[in-house]
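Journal club prep — side note

Before the paper discussion, L.F. wants everyone to see what a predicted structure for a comparable chain looks like in token form. Sequence:
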Amino acid sequence: MTEVALVIDGSEVLVDEGATLLDACRSIAKEQPTLCYLETLAPVNVCRVCVVEVEGSRTLVPSCSRKVEPGMVVQTDSERVRHSRRVVFEMLASSVDLTLVDQPTQGWMGFYGVDPSRFGSQAPSASDRDQRHAGHHHPVEGDAAETVHQPVKVDNTLYVRDYSRCILCYKCVEACGDDAQNTFAIAVAGRGFDARISTEFDVKLPEGACVFCGNCIGVCPTGALMFRSEHELRQAELWDEERQTVTRTVCSFCGVGCNLELHVQDNRIVKVTSPMDHSVTDGHLCIKGRFGYEYVQELGDLASTPIDIVLRRARAD
């Protein structure tokens, strides 16, 4: 494999031809913030928090998809890069609920001194955004910033959609499409600020093409898509990741050999994920692997789901 030499923040770096700038940065332990990027999905270049400065380029370039070229001179921490990343984070946080983003993202927001309040306080949406005429805006009152807040969509027993937390990173669309599941049950609808993730004709999930594999949940970076069990525990203020253990095992439903990560709280399985580094799954599962864990607990109470039992016990205590 041919190697390419470039300079990143003053240091010469050698990487394989075809690598991205993000790959090159990571090869020398220079991590960059990402939201829409995932190793197992095709890059879509929409969040723009990974942009870097390339000498000779008129604009900042997304490091997650820009291929390395011989002699490139790259800056990842210039004032131009810092300013761009800070503004992107601030604009997202001014309209979207980012309280459930992962710790690395929260760390980056702190590093760049993100202050979304300078765009004004958040003004909750008065109606369901799905019913709005895309692109037709009504001015908000005072200096408040318009948000994407809307009611949580609870239309099935497996997972919920809280699009108040959605940053339109496209990860769920990619995972539902030809990058993983090939179901194509969801896509982006609308335009501009009214763009949102939607099913065909905005039907409820059980009425659409969704096969409830939950792969969209596995790639969501903000908590917009969440296990119903986690959602209800959070609503009851019982969700506590510090008390949870994660056990890696093999799915018992078939012989494919998918690896599962069982998240257990109070001796109950509260959700199931799959490791991204497993060659069989790449983090993806089917409906049985991700949601079919009821059979291992409370066999004497088949009328109750695990979350019902956890909540009932908590209320009894």
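L.F.'s comment for the group: DSSP finds eight helices and 14 strands in the chain. Keep this in mind when we get to the figures.
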